[in-house]
Amino acid sequence: MATINDIAKMAGVSVSTVSHVVNKTRYVSPEKVEKVERAIRELETPPNFVLKKKMTPFFEKGGKYIFMLLSDKQSNFQRRVERKIDEKLKSTEYTLVTIECGADIDGMAGFLQAVVQGNAAAGLIVFPDEKDLLIKHVLADARVPVVILGREVEGYLADTVCTDTFEGAYKGTKHLINKGHERIAFLGRSSDRMPMRLEGYKKALEESGIPAEEAYIYPHLQNDMDFFEAMDRLLEKDHMPTAVLLANYAVVTPFLKYISAHNIQCPGDISVVCFDFFEWAPLYTPALTTIEQDVEPYAELAADTLLKRIARQETANQPAFKEVYKTETLSMKLVIRDSTRGIGRGPFGERAAAMEELIVPEDKISVIRRKKLTAAISFHYAGKAWMELHQKGIRNVFDRMGISVIAITDAHFDPQLQCRQLESLALLKPDIMIAIPSDNKRTSAAFRKIAESSMKLVLINSVPEGLSREDYVTCVSVNERSHGQNMGHGLGEYMYRHGLKNYGVIVHNADFYATNQRDNAAKQVLAEEYPDLRLCGEVRFENEGEVYRKTRELIKRYPEIEALYISWDGPAIESIEALTELGRTDIAISTGDLDYAVAMNMAKGGMVKALSAQCPFEQGQAIALAAVKSVLGEEVPSFVGVEPITVTPENLLRAWKQVFKEEAGEELTQAFKENPNYVFEK
User: Fold this and answer.
1) Does residue 274 sit in the same domain as residue 351?
2) How confident is the model over 41-74, as pLDDT tens digits?
3) Is 333 inside any structural domain?
4) Does 24 share its domain with 158?
5) What gap in Å lies between CA 617 and CA 582, rounded to an integer?
6) What are the helix and strand counts (H, E) for the chain?
7) What sign does the CA torsion over 392, 398, 399, 403 have?
8) Is the pTM of this model over 0.85?
């Protein structure tokens, strides 16, 4: 039989290092641990010599030891469970002894059988390996209570504690789908829990009407080389995935290495959700979204279950248990961080392209100038700063390109008037027609005529009913999904910081893809990322004039409401008036779009605590650039979503300058300075 000196020589380390590795009495570097463990694995017989000092008493009957068998020494989850169970047992008469079986279960079998059959252990806690070798070789004849962790083992009678990995994968996949992703890859290192995770992934896709394409699914990757080859194949596809579910911890590091080496941005190019908790997940840039098993109740349940069996002297795998064997399945939680982002969608479900995709090369500007193009603009309402900034952004580009804006009309929200205005503009025969529909149905015929002409039609915010993708150049708007997420986060964070629990939502009832996308994104954020908050009630309005009344009705029905999400600034102002009259100025509001009224309310410390602001000047630039690219005969994305910005009292003045391209006025600045709760920005 080998000696401790033999092991030290084989590993190239000192005798004391071998002792510390085996007995876990001092920290040893991972490199030296691996050397010692490799030397031990190469022995023909188990290295009992190392264990004599501490393990000899274990072979005596009635030992006060609970053995924990780990099947995967690299499993972060198994290690965390081990630590929590050890903490739990310190308050009892039992001591936890951990044995790493790893892949060398056959080599450990003799020693483990001696422990189990010799009554050295009072009980066993076991993470089974993939092939159930621990059960078949070691535990089949165990005469002590056993608790199985991770999954049930067919044909073996023992209490089992596991987590619902099906649910975890479903949650992670559903989260990505709700953020607008449809091409979602599934990558995992082979494990016994992989089938359930794969089924959860497929279930989420099926419910959303998204086919589970085999080309996106790699559940049994054996090593890093397999993983890298799978990623190469995914990138070769015409439609590479926009998101990926990493189904276990073993593939997280290879994934991050791969995207870094290939200059793939997360979450810009690809969003990622990772199975398992790991300490560095929130510290990585971007912080990684994870599907986590809550270790504390898991370990608590495992230890308590085993101690109860020990107290009753009930032996595993025996049908004579006084109580029926139990399987406890615990839920998993989704911890959302920065590695997932929403994909804005256009009216036909297309991905929102970024403004950066519309760059016109300098050498093409002279080509455009020679064409001496003209443009006309049909606004639904031109009186707001939002539309004025659109116009400035359009002119900013057109002036550089030598394109003349020959007419601008204002429909005053009157669809019939807009139809007449479009007819008049068409008579001018502009090369480019830019328009925001006042009503998608009632203006459809007028826009159809524009679409059938030689004019390049660029739409703002929405597409009139009956128009197909081929009828217009592009539709430019804010990235509504990001818009809603900003508002949801703003409200959630404010409520979290101030200990608020109850909220309501006031949303637009019209069937506009833009506002629907915005509202749904906000509600998703509040439900998923702030689960402790309670949604009391939701009301819908057709027009802003209804909001005053509906706000009063909502608060009278749910007086416990402490905060409100409201679709945009116009209805928010109506709600503020109603709440003020009700004496409920304590209610916090999160809304969208930055204008003077909401900015002043925020600056004075009023009800508006957070908002998401569109960048209309940049949207105007995107409109003009899309028109130019179309004239040049270049491909233009069918939908462009310009990213909004988050506005809070802390960045209000800076945000105002960013949106409006000028400093905030004296009144707004003074109101901000006079608010004792805010620090003036320099």
Assistant:
1) no
2) 777 554 544 443 334 443 444 558 898 888 876 7
3) no
4) yes
5) 37
6) 24, 24
7) negative
8) no
